[in-house]
Amino acid sequence: MAEDNGNDRSAFKRSADSKFYREELDAILAALPTGPSEEEADDTGDETPPRRKTPAALDAGAQSEPEKKRFSLLRKEARPHARRAEEDDEDDEDEEEDEEESRREKAARKALKKEARKRAKEEKRRKAAQKRMQAASDSMKNSHPRLRLFVIVLITLVLIMLLLLVGVSKVLSSPPAILNVPAEGISAVMQPVQSVFTSVTETFADFFRTIKLYQNIEDEYNSLREEYEQIVYDAARARELEIQLSQFENIYDEIAANANMQPLVARVIGRDDGNYFSTFTINVGSADGVEQYMAVTISGALVGYTETVQDKSATVRTIIDSEASIAALIQSSRDQGTVRGTLGIDGEPMCRMYYLPDDHLPRPGDIVVTSGVGMSFPKGIPIGTVRESTRGMQANKQYIVVEPSADFQHLEYVIVLRYQPTPLAVQGRGGGSDAFEELATARPYPTLRFGSMNYFGVTASPEPEEGEETPSPDAEETPAPEETAATATPPARPTPTPAATGEEFEYHPVGGDPTPTPSPSPTPSPTPFETLDPSAMTFEDED
Amino acid sequence: MIYRLITLVKTAVRYTMLFLLTLLTYLLQVCVLDRYLNIGSITPNLMMAFLAVVAVGFGRLRAFWCGAVLGLLLEVMQPSQMLLNLLLYPVCALFTAYMFASKTPAQLEYERSIGKSGRNLSPYLRVMCASAVNITICEVINLVYIYLRGTDISGVNIGRALISIASTLLITLPVLFVLRRPFGIVRKRASVSASPYVEELSV
Lengths: 543, 203
Description:
The complex is a heterodimer of chains A (about 550) and B (about 200).
Chain A: E1 3-4, E2 7-8, H1 22-31, H2 38-44, H3 55-59, H4 65-78, H5 80-87, H6 92-142, H7 145-171, H8 177-257, E3 263-273, E4 278-282, E5 295-298, E6 301-309, E7 314-318, E8 325-330, E9 336-341, H9 343-346, E10 351-354, E11 367-370, E12 382-386, E13 392-394, E14 397-404, E15 413-417, H10 423-428, E16 448-450, E17 453-455
Antiparallel strand pairs in A: 1-2, 3-4, 3-15, 4-7, 5-6, 5-15, 6-7, 8-9, 8-11, 9-10, 10-14, 11-12, 12-14, 13-14, 16-17
Chain B: H1 2-36, H2 46-58, H3 60-77, H4 84-100, H5 105-113, H6 123-148, H7 155-179, H8 196-200
Helix pairs in contact in B: 1-3, 2-3, 2-4, 2-6, 2-7, 3-4, 4-6, 6-7
């Protein structure tokens, strides 16, 4: 137990912070005798009992000296430790503690005072508000009660009357005019108000709609742009389809005119146009009935022939390829020759016609067509036109330049003529018999015969009998073309077994003359004109 | 004397404001909601929501006045069915005011004396209930009317009625929160008010 100068502090009841507050002091003082002793009372003669004073009253200043003395004594007795600390001048630590305690006590008292003042203010405010509310409610209740009642009843009655009048005017089929007055009055008042309100709301709505429209302008622009691009694409597509349609129409006319040759439309799916060769690939093959060395035409002109045939595709060698060699004839003079391409020779996409008779000079503009000799080409397919009548010379061979009719730069669709010439047709060119006879080989291979034995041949070729005409092409005036190493005409391939119809089909070009005739004469003369002496002709040297 | 005059003017201003609010409700319903705010061509009924707020905040008399004004305006300016609007709005207002208006102190005291709770329910809840009752009565009457005219009541009609009720309840909330203070629906602190009557009403 803490002791202070010999006294036990625990003997005195104290507050939590070891300080005695005013309330506690009041209780202590109340328990103490406050009046003077009997002797003192007798001496003074005062019969009135002394008034017990609170510390506030004692501190109020209206204190007599004896009271002050007694108060100080009481204070001292209540706080003996403080008195001892005051009496003990040598104990500095106790003095400091006391000062600190007194400071804390003062601060606590200040805070208490503040709180009390605040509570008093709030209480005052609340009471004033209560007073005001009470006054207001009292005034409401007490001010003009009759007037208030009159107004309420009047308004209610007016409204009920209006309801009745309007209701009756609606019920009656032909109400009197006076019944329509309320409705007309209300309508007259409300109509302009409603119009103004509607216009104001529409203005606001338009304003917000405009804002939303601005926000949507970008979306609308994008959608319009997409729509425009789609329209442009559709227009381009329509234009493309229109061009294709015109091409198909031309192709259809050509197919219709040459239906007996089993034409087949093919699309060019690959090209190999170099400086020396000119071939392209089409999307039809043996599965479609295409075979080797079938004529390929477009716009009524010969383009080339099928060279390599696969199941679903085929390679076509064009007539401007220097490897190509096609039997042809000049339509006007019926002079036969061989047309070859010049691409690999001089790089020009042109043709040359060789092996023409020397005594005939074709004219510029003469049409060159297929003769049907050699490959299974139908006869009469336009190849091109004679460009100039001057003969050229190449490796001691004379030629004329033929300009092809087909446009090799813009090939998209071609027609394959699956033409199969019949043996009779082939044989019929020479006026042979109706019975089928296997043609003799073009080059009979030699055999040696010693007695009855044959060597270098299984079967002996039939010896030509005297007087028997060897089958030859129809052109009597022109000799058979000499085979040289340069003229690599395709070897005679055995023609497939044809249908024995005995008909020979001639190609019908569609669309008139594929190339204009540059000759001033209106029609080419079918009969050959006077030919020049070969010795008088000039030759062009090969560059 | 001056104080009484001020009181008179204040009362007149309050009645005028109530009338203008009623007019504004009608204009908003007719000019704005019908055009710009509808759910599948079903427009919420702002007028019924307003009548519910007035019934709870002001009582029977003012609710009847507002209902009568709205009915008159609709019957004259937007006639649809004969006498339907003229009778429907005042009757609905009176009915909901009788059901949901605040009880007087005398009534509350009486209820306490017979053992009941003796207090008013939350004004917000009463406003929502009043609005629901108003719009339900309106939709039921319309359904009965079209049934008597020969149209079969199908799920579509009932669905539209339910949508109308739900949309009206939704629109009651903003109306309530906007008008609660002027109409005295806000519950004040017990320490400030002098009497229960003052606690509920500030007009």
